[in-house]
Specification:
It is built from eleven helices and two strands, in the order H-E-E-H-H-H-H-H-H-H-H-H-H. It is an all-alpha fold. The chain has a two-stranded antiparallel ribbon. Strand 1 and strand 2 form a beta hairpin. The N terminus is likely disordered.
């Protein structure tokens, strides 16, 4: 009974996570709406494409980190509600990453596929970003209950790819910034902490099996 109450409620008012999901959905959509408003009202600065690339890329990385934070929250605090939000946050990470790539392909390279391919091959930071997006693509496609049933135990192994997507995204940001790398390093440190937070549980499980 206690586990059920923990799963279904937040705080002392008994608000179910299912009831809060529409609000959380809008909060996660908020950055996209803000970017759209800034675009419509012409408040993107002297280089609009660069601003759009920066904002969408930054929010893709933030959503990835937020998604990766859900499991440590559940493990350390014994909350079950973060797991119910993990899929939604992960899909938003893919949404912002896809928007980031589309802005680059459409507005920066004007759908010149030979130029895009050349960038992916020759410019390491673009290679890393593109690889991260390619990892997130099958994760987004297989995020439904139907795919979870079809893939069975393989679903979890596939979705561990989010760790590599996070690492590649952080490296993409670090490599992109040529001067002051303090901001991307902060995100890289947060990612490292979230990945390290998973290690103790895995080691304990191995010790129990041995």
């Amino acid at each position: 009974m206690m586990a059920t109450q923990t799963t279904q409620s937040i705080g002392h008012r008994g608000l179910t996570i299912e009831r809060l999901k529409p609000l959380i959905f809008l909060l996660l959509l908020g950055p996209a709406l803000s970017i759209a408003w800034r675009t419509w009202s012409n408040h993107l600065g002297a280089n609009p494409v660069e601003t759009l690339l920066h904002l969408t890329g930054l929010w893709a990385l933030r959503m990835l980190l937020l998604c990766l934070a859900m499991t440590p929250l559940q493990r350390f605090f014994r909350w079950l509600w973060p797991i119910r939000l993990r899929r939604m946050i992960g899909l938003y990470a893919f949404f912002y990453a896809l928007a980031h790539f589309c802005i680059y392909a459409i507005f920066d390279r004007e759908l010149d596929f030979s130029s895009i391919l050349g960038d992916v091959i020759k410019r390491p930071y673009i290679t890393l970003g593109f690889l991260s997006l390619m990892i997130l693509l099958p994760l987004a496609i297989t995020s439904t209950q139907g795919w979870i049933r079809r893939l069975g135990p393989g679903w979890k192994r596939l979705h561990r790819g989010v760790y590599f997507a996070g690492i590649l995204s952080a490296l993409h940001f670090i490599w992109l910034v040529k001067a002051d790398i303090r901001e991307p390093l902060i995100y890289a440190m947060l990612l490292s902490l979230l990945l390290l937070a998973r290690l103790p549980t895995k080691y304990v499980a191995k010790l129990r099996r041995s």
